[in-house]
Amino acid sequence: MAEKVAPPSPREITTKPRVSDRVFRGTVTGVGMLSLLILTLIGLFLALRGFQTFKSEGFHFLTGYKWESVTSDSGQVTNTFGVGAMLIGTILIASVALVVGVPLSVLCALFLSFYVPDRLKKLLVSVVDLMAAFPSILYGLWGYFVLMPMAEYWAKLLYKYLRWIPIFDAPQPFFERSPFIAGLVLAIMIIPIVTSVSREIFAQTPLDRVQAAYALGATRWAMIKTVVLPFGSSGVVGGAMLGLGRAFGETVAVFTVLNVVFKANFHILYGAGGNVASMIILKWGEAVGDETKALLAAGFVLFVLTLLINLAANSIVKRTLKSGK
Amino acid sequence: MTTTATPVVPQKPWQATPKEIAPTILLLIVSLLASVVIVAMTPMKGKLAYAFLFFVIGTTSLSIRKWRIRGRAAAADAIVSSIALTGAALVFTPVISILATTISHGVKGLHWSLFTQSMFSASYQDPISAGGLLHALVGTLYLILISIILSVPMGILTALYLTEIKGPGANFIQFIVQAMSGVPSVVAGLFIFASIIVTTPIKASGIAGAFALSILMIPTVTRTAQEVLLLVPNDLREAGQALGATQWKTVATIVVPAARNGLITATILGVARIAGETAPLLFTIGGSDKLNWNPFKDYQGALPFYVWKGLMMGTPESVQRAWTGILILLILVLVLFVAARTLGGRRMKSK
Amino acid sequence: MTLPINNDDGDNMSVEAAPSKSSLGDVASERAKAKMPGNAPLGSGLEARGIHAWFGKHHALSDVSLDFAAGTVTALIGPSGCGKSTFIRTLNRMHEFIPSAAMAGEVLLDGKDVYAKGTDVTKIRLQIGMVFQKPNPFPSMTIGENVLSGLKLAQLKVSDRENLMQECLERAGLWAEVKDRLGAHAGGLSGGQQQRLCIARALAVKPKVLLMDEPCSALDPGSTLRIEDTIGQLAQTMTIIIVTHNMQQAARVSDYTAFFLSDGGPGSMIEVGPTNEIFSRPRDQRTENYVSGRFG
């Protein structure tokens, strides 16, 4: 006689948003998507304008060392465009910036996180943030007039004692306006971002592990070594990559300090070289026609490069921050 | 049994007393003297030698002392402490140097007519008393104003999308905003050149420059605004909706007003981000030396551009202009920065 | 055996109060017998004298004097916010990590004030170990490395690592479960196992005193019983102070119990005595209210 009772089926709960809400949500969503549109347009326009160059130069555009637009007597224009030399310079200068800037940033972040009393910490953190707000042309000006004379002396010392290492050698003892000095200026410019990302990550270190280490009789350094660094190292790598992205794209400061010459220079102490961004500025003034297009193509390369670095960096930082929660 | 009437005083027995700090300071003074002596006696010379020797001798002597009274672990701790302190000092020294040189070089060129004249009838090679930077100041103010109009609404609405709607694409958009904040400024300039200046009737002008600057400003505004909106407690939103208000009403009348100061801070930080940008302007504003009140037509000047020109000409007079220009730019950035801090600080306190 | 008696007027004096063995309850009496001074060469224990604690202006703990005889288990009970956790953190100087923290009074370990000028705080924490509320093994280390992590942190040398590791894990009651996977990461253990690993880790540096701050509050009842078992074993060789919210737990594991209470002002110790007395005939009405479950 048992009458089967149908199991209750889930009832759907829906609320139909009111008109004003739908307008609001639509507008906000639309605007939210705009940033995607802008980013796509940047890539699209630069690629489109540079398309001709990519087509004529092919892969050689990335590996070529020559940037020439020669007009023969008969009016025939021969173009050879390759940013290879400048890509090398970009990597070289950014490497100097990372090698100098990242250790200093990590030390500074450790100092701010674990060594300074609270009140001083607030002030110093503000100073680091202020560094990030300094215009890049200010770094260029200071780098050229203040840092350069000192750094030239350091370069001479490096040359004197370490020239047996190939990158510290130089074809001529000409140390002014070198990739080394440009790299030092960039190092100072990436310090705020790397420091603040590292600090943010160190602050996420799970407190219970910190206390466990101290309760076991750890000194401050022993605690940092066993708890903070294993937790934060991947995040610091992410921060360093954000710095790398900034160093790759920096234009004005590099152009001011560096003796921008279009040639491949592997000797960091020798005063010649350039990066993609500063090369664009250098060539822009006289560029016409095809060369302008080639410069836009170079801009596209720079855009893609920094975009990839930034995406990778952000996902690493995000993952580390999450793991602390 | 004694009854004491004196109240118990809070103490911090873990804090070092002057007597405990004294040996450390003494050791540092001795290290300083030792480095002076060594520099005098050996062929090493220069500031670098002093700094290096002082660091090495100071660190070694402090860590040896720690080793003797506390053991190996304490010695390692002492070494790392002094390395960390040195690292931080190396980070903050350039800031002090930058501020000091900018001020000392910049003030030499300050005079009143800077703010009343343009460079139209003067040359960069003239002594700085000729001409002024009014045209650049006006240009920069226009650039800032238009950039605010272009990027603040978009930045805040995007932040609202990320915090209020939390739509399916929120994570992705977050990713895109972060990617956008990494766009090199030179690329922003090239893009506006390639898209707007080449294809539309808008030619190099104030508005074209502001377009380029907005690309850099939007992500800054969005990210700061998002942080601020996340600080608005959820109970406020729920309270609004429990009262029967629509989401739109809740956001407009409760969430945004609660975050008002923070949103202003976001705007200011965005302005500070772009005020000194030079690279995008090189492709977009033309860099006029003439006062131009119309940001939609004809070449425009700007402070960073003025500095750039002065620097590139390279004569003592033009470089003096660059220093003075950068000083004014720096003051602008500092004012913005302090304003953002004060507003931001007040927001935190009221929470 | 010295027991501090807290007078009503807040004035402290210590009186010789040898608790009669017959009055000690069934659980603790056996152990207490074995640990009477003279029987166990465990050092002279830990002594807190007139401890006050502040966080900024907030006076969190007022005038607590308490003796922890060597080889005993003392439970600190009381409602939330009564200052018992703050109190045990003053004992191994973990209190000072909070920037605004301040204190007054003395903590004597073997007769020496741990707050005396020139004391090496890391040495104090090596002698007074601590186990926290939430199990917190180092996730980047293996189980074995976790046990020995204290030695690495304090840069102490040890001749026979394997033996020490085994001994500590055995004393913590974890050896049988992990002996085959000492090289595995600690994150794979259950909560209760992790907590026993934390106990083993604390034991490896051979502390004289072990502080336990609600060590079972994050664990299931089965794991709780195992930890209580471990505490019983450990008490033979060291002094244990345990903060707990669980009155049954206090009754099960401790020889002495101290009741803390805050009446709006700073927390203070209301009463201390042999555990069975505190639970059966407390002298103070407030203690009775608490242990009989009328509040808290």
Q: How does this model look, in words?
A:
The complex is a heterotrimer of chains A (325), B (351) and C (296). With 325 residues, chain A is mostly helical. Chain A has helices at residues 19-57, 60-63, 84-115, 118-133, 136-162, 179-203, 207-215, 220-249, 252-257, 276-284, 290-323, and strands at residues 67-71, 77-81. Chain A contains eleven helices and two strands; from the N terminus they run ααββααααααααα. Chain A has a two-stranded antiparallel sheet with strand order 1-2. The termini of chain A are far apart. Chain B contains 13 helices and no strands. The two termini of chain B are 50 Å apart. With 296 residues, chain C is an alpha/beta fold. Chain C is built from eleven helices and twelve strands. In chain C, strands 8-9-10-5-11-12 form a six-stranded mixed sheet, sandwiched between helices. Chain C has a four-stranded antiparallel sheet with strand order 4-3-6-7, covered by helices on one side. In chain C, strands 1-2 form a two-stranded antiparallel sheet. In chain C, 51% of the residues are buried.
Number of helices of chain A: 11
Structural class of chain A: mainly alpha
Q: What would you say the CATH architecture of the largest domain in chain B is? A: Orthogonal Bundle
Mean pLDDT level of chain B = 89
- Quaternary status: heterotrimer
SSE series of chain B: HHHHHHHHHHHHH
Using only C-alpha atoms, the radius of gyration of chain B works out to 28 Å
At the fourth level of CATH, the homologous superfamily of chain A is MetI-like
Biggest interface goes to:
A-B, 92 and 93 residues
Estimated share of beta-strand residues of chain A: under 5%
In angstroms, what separates the terminal alpha carbons of chain A?
57 Å
Briefly, what CATH class of the largest domain in chain B? Answer: Mainly Alpha
Number of domains of chain A: 1
What sort of overall outline of chain A do the alpha carbons produce when their principal axes are compared? flat
Distance between the termini of chain B: 50 Å
Tags for this model:
heterotrimer, A: 325 residues, mainly alpha, flat, C: 296 residues, alpha/beta, disordered N terminus
Strand and helix map with partners:
The complex is a heterotrimer of chains A (325), B (351) and C (296).
Chain A: H1 19-57, H2 60-63, E1 67-71, E2 77-81, H3 84-115, H4 118-133, H5 136-162, H6 179-203, H7 207-215, H8 220-249, H9 252-257, H10 276-284, H11 290-323
Antiparallel strand pairs in A: 1-2
Helix pairs in contact in A: 1-11, 3-6, 3-8, 4-6, 5-6, 6-8, 7-8, 8-11, 10-11
Chain B: H1 18-41, H2 47-70, H3 72-106, H4 134-165, H5 170-181, H6 185-199, H7 206-231, H8 234-242, H9 247-258, H10 260-275, H11 279-284, H12 303-313, H13 316-350
Helix pairs in contact in B: 1-2, 2-3, 3-13, 4-5, 4-7, 4-10, 4-12, 5-7, 6-7, 7-10, 8-9, 10-13, 12-13
Chain C: E1 2-6, E2 12-16, H1 26-34, E3 46-55, E4 58-68, E5 73-77, H2 84-91, E6 101-109, E7 112-113, H3 121-127, E8 128-131, H4 143-153, H5 161-171, H6 175-178, H7 191-203, E9 209-213, H8 221-234, E10 239-243, H9 247-253, E11 256-261, E12 268-274, H10 275-280, H11 285-291
Parallel strand pairs in C: 5-10, 5-11, 8-9, 9-10
Antiparallel strand pairs in C: 1-2, 3-4, 3-6, 6-7, 11-12
